[in-house]
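Exercise 7. Given the components listed, write out the predicted structure of the assembled complex. Treat all entries as one system.
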Amino acid sequence: MAIFGKGFFISSLKTAFQRVCSGGWLYLFFVAAFGIMLFIGIGSGIHALFIAGSRHAYATSREVPVAILISTYIFFVVGSTGLCLVSSLGHVFGMESFLPLAKRCVYLSIITILSGFLVIGLEIENPFRMAVYNVISPNFSSNIWWMGTLYGFAVVFLTIEFIFLFNEENHHKAVIAGFLGVVTEIAANSNLGGVFAMMNGRPFWYGPYFPVYFILSALITGCAFIIFFFFLAHKAVNKEAFDDFTAKALQSVSKLTLLLLAIMMIFTLWKFLTTSVGSPGAVTALNILTDGSYSFNFWAIEVLGGMVIPFVLILAGKERNLTVMFIASALMIFSLFFTRMDMVVVGQLVPQYFELGVVEYSKLHTYFPSVHEILVVLGGISFCVLAFLLGEKVFSGFAENQQTEHIQEKEPEVVGAEETV
Amino acid sequence: MTSNLGKKDVPPYPLDQERREFLKIGLKITGVLAGGSILSLVSTLNKAYSLDIFRDKYPYKPHYAMVLRQDRCIDCKKCMIACVSANTVPDYGWRTQILKRDLASSLDQKWEFIPILCNQCNNPPCVRTCPTTATYKNKINGIVQMNNKKCIGCKSCIMACPYDARYYNEEKGAIDKCDFCFESRLSKGTNTPACVQACPSDVRVFGDVSDPKSRVFQLVHQLQKPVWVLREHIGAKPNIFYMKG
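Answer.
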């Protein structure tokens, strides 16, 4: 395999660097801006953990021990699972309309998972111990252990898959790696839901809902990421029109998004109906979302911005208008970020002894992110965007030779994408 | 009846059917009531049985537990001071605390004090969730302890603990919690945790709940006064028992 040759590797790096440099001043400006924000975010996290102390720098507390950094991690890794799943529909499970998405999707899946790792690495107090004791002292009954380990394996499988996707001869190996990637991603994602679902002391989280919800939510996040990043890649970075195959693939994704949004609305409705007749702790948490300090987040951002408006937009655009789909996906991504935060934070705002009726735990806890936390979150987002921007140039816009050649054996359908864009 | 039976236009079965219907309704009502009684009995038995689980299953030897006679607590906070001193607890954390319940509408006392600490659960959610076994159940005495060097500071155990018994200790670089003073006292030959020794009104009774001679055993197993645990419905099977008197 020439791809692993030393000379080939160095010359590839050189040409990749040249492609990045030839991206234009606006492209380079964004690369520099997100690069700076990434370093500020990492610096902020290092300062918080190793100099100031997280107790001083982060707004978390004994009562609300994890918050926006964990929710950002969840946002990214759940998105990674979704990207992996949706892309696998094409090149692993043979659904041809999804084939043109494969390379960029797998790449996005890798960079989103790494963004999540970056953020959680700056949240965990002793990240270096984690690397050692996760391996030599595992707790097999811990969902967190399984989640972290499986996501670690997922990165490896996805990277192998990504490398093989660039080599026509190894497509079957890419399929195997992709399949393993899908399995580990789903298992990791479900275990992430299990982290919350197994907390029997937290009635808002406890129960079988979250492991299932996280898979559904992953698919929605994946669809939103695909539409968002594909549109940006074609229109903003590479400045090229969509070919018919990619446009058709995006239409398939938007159809899938419609279906998933409808299911999500039913899921959310039932979660809320069942919680409303649950234990006092769960009902109190629910009230925070529907009628309390997080009600704007819930009604305006989660329900309206994340489900209703995107659903109407995609429906009104007849799943063909890519600009409308892009707006809908951007709204969904924005909303999903807050959905994760609301879920993580609201589940902790009801004190553990709230029902005991004691003075010390008579009021609900509060949380608002600190500057350090916001900078780390922005650092994680910057890593993702920066890696996306660089990836587009380094991998030459993920030219879909392999997939399109495969499809072009059949007569391409006219989808009218150009007219609608 | 015979006169009715004699009439051609009134068939005999409606009355029989009526009676049968009546009997059926009667049986149904009886069944519902009986069923309800059985159900209520079952639920009562369940309650009694669940308490027996606490009383009879002591898998450790010694099985350390504590009984808190909460009506004796006067909120002097000597237990908290002793705990801080014995275990070097920083000012931003606590291992034990005394909660205050406002009883303004009661006829006698206006406040009730409830000491809390780690419940050293038999089924500890914190131990289950810890990814690196940094927190573990001592196999001999059942105390939930920390191995600080393994703690990655993910704080999932703080989230999982139903009793708010954990906090992140910056100085230790690990989660800190009550260990019945195992590290600071019990392992060095002292018989009681610092809070127990400091309490002037004998609120906290500590000992081996599996030993019939111990005060803890006798308090937990007497039937005159009710004994309860906090947040029993969670199923963590705590080893901190509460009672009055």
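Discussion: The first helix of chain B runs from residue 2 to 6. The helical segments of chain B are 2-6, 13-56, 78-87, 125-129, 156-160, 194-198, 215-221.
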